[in-house]
Specification:
7-stranded mixed sheet; globular
């Protein structure tokens, strides 16, 4: 891993579907195993050799500054730049507002609520081989319900317990070239016009990840992630114990 490649983590979301936990707390500070989910994401990147972080702050950004100093900062393990990008700025706008702080030709972007055992080194290598402006990780999450398999005359012939989707979705781990800033505006959403324009120009590649991936989107997700951590079988824990 080239340690000069910076990692941007989008930390501005309000977490509306986690309202019982995020009314007074930014989503990235919701805890898994006694640590903010943000800490887990940073540990994933640090384990891959990425130690230069930029946190794009928004909703209750000061709480992130305060909490970060308490139990996420790791002197000597990583460097962190905390940047206020506006309370209600769209995801693309948050990245755009960091343009002057990105010093390399390429950089990672990660959502602040996704955990995975993705091979980040392989993602970067794939991006460099693609020669596109951006590479987006795509995943096939498991459906929240089991499926019923029907036969002739509507007889039930079997069941599939929470199978993977056939379709691919945005997994929230990206590599961008500096040229991606030309597609962004200071207020818009990354997932709308910018990615659509990149795709139309043939400048957006996909990196398929078939391994573990979970998004902390609901209270149920928080419970399941904590249960996985407490069991000692957290697949996203790609780092060794200190």
């Amino acid at each position: 891993m080239d340690e000069r490649v910076q990692t941007v983590v989008l930390c501005g979301g309000r977490g509306h579907r986690l309202r019982q936990l995020t009314e007074d707390t930014p989503k990235v500070l919701v805890e898994v195993g006694g640590r903010p989910v943000l800490w887990h994401i940073m540990k994933m990147f640090a384990a891959a050799g990425c130690r230069d972080f930029m946190l794009a702050l928004g909703y209750r950004g000061e709480d992130i500054r305060n909490r970060f100093g308490e139990d996420a900062a790791r002197p000597g393990e990583w460097r962190v730049d905390l940047v206020d990008t506006g309370d209600d700025t769209g995801s693309g706008g948050r990245i755009k507002r960091l343009e002057s702080r990105i010093h390399g030709d390429q950089f990672y972007v990660a959502y602040g609520d996704g955990l995975s055992n993705i091979d980040l080194r392989a993602l970067l290598a794939a991006h460099r081989a693609n020669r596109t402006v951006a590479t987006m990780t795509v995943v096939r999450p498991r459906l929240p319900f089991g499926l019923v398999e029907l036969g002739d005359r509507d007889t039930v012939v079997g069941f599939a317990e929470k199978p993977r989707m056939d379709a691919w979705i945005n997994g929230g781990f990206f590599v961008f070239d500096r040229a991606a800033f030309d597609y962004l505006d200071p207020d818009g959403m990354l997932e709308e016009t910018p990615l659509q324009r990149m795709a139309a120009d043939g400048q957006l590649a996909a990196y398929r990840h078939d391994g573990y991936w979970e998004c902390m989107d609901t209270f149920k997700d928080v419970l399941e992630l904590n249960a996985a951590w407490d069991s000692g079988e957290a697949p996203w824990r790609t780092w060794r114990d200190d």
